[in-house]
Amino acid sequence: MKRARPDLFHPRIVLAGPGDDAGLIAALRRRGLHARWRSWQDPATVHADLVILRAATDYRGRLRDFLAWTKRVPNLLNAPDVLAWNVDRQYLRDLRRAGVPTAYVPVPGDQTALVFLGGEQSHAFADKSAVEVDDELWDVGRAALQAAADRVGVRAVEMLYARADVTGTRSGARLVSLDLVAPSLGWRSLTDTARANGQRRFAVCVSAALQRLGLGPFAHRRP
User: Fold this and answer.
1) Among 160, 167, 181, 204, which is most exposed with the fewest C-beta within 10 angstroms?
2) PANTHER family annotated for this entry (predicted)?
């Protein structure tokens, strides 16, 4: 692809997954960022400047290989330590110890997915449809995200994405699961306008991550 400013550094960005997040490539391009889809198992991923893990449905069957791959990638979002902590189901125990109300058994049917981008509230969905949820549920999601960040030693803003599945019970809102690895973010559940706004926010967070890593498109000039 021809670059408008060949004298500037253009980070090579890979979205690792099967390409089910329709619209993200275009949203990133509007921010001046160019990305392509590749499988996380593609050897080319380790040569990218930034890899964003968006789907890895087979990683649990190859957990050792997957975790080794996260360490080989130069810059991975979310970060390898975040992923290593989250793939162990014992993460829920850590969150309970941190004071996050959690469900001790899976809750069928009535869960709501809360999506956070760059540590900030984005949107919610349930049964493949966007929903409005009350502050009590969002508070549980925010508490879980902050507790996770504290546990792995990062700031919540450094987590590009997070999905907290929560449920409301008679005893109050509770966390069912927190996915920081490669969760579905429910883009297709949103209206066109809401999806565009959410994916714009996603792209802004990617730009911010590149700046933190010293990889912003305007951070380095080529000699």
Assistant:
1) 204
2) GLUTATHIONE SYNTHETASE, PTHR39217
DSSP string spanning 124-145? Answer: EEETTEE----HHHHHHHHHHH
Q: From CA 116, how far away is CA 118, in angstroms rounded? A: 7
Residue 157 is which amino acid? Answer: V
Tell me the whole-structure pTM to 2 decimals.
Answer: 0.90
Tell which residue, 117, 102, 136, has the closest CA to residue 190.
Answer: 117
All structural domains of the chain, each given as residue ranges with its CATH number in brackets, are 13-212 (3.30.470.20)
HSE, side-chain direction, 13 A CA sphere, residue 110? 8
Rounded CA-CA distance 24/183 in Å is: 15
**Helix then strand then coil, % of the chain, to nearest 5:** 40, 20, 40
CA dihedral (104, 107, 112, 117) in degrees, to 10, reads 40
Q: Please compute Rg for the chain using Cα positions.
A: 18
pLDDT tens digits for 144-190? Answer: 999 999 999 999 999 999 999 999 876 789 999 999 999 999 999 99
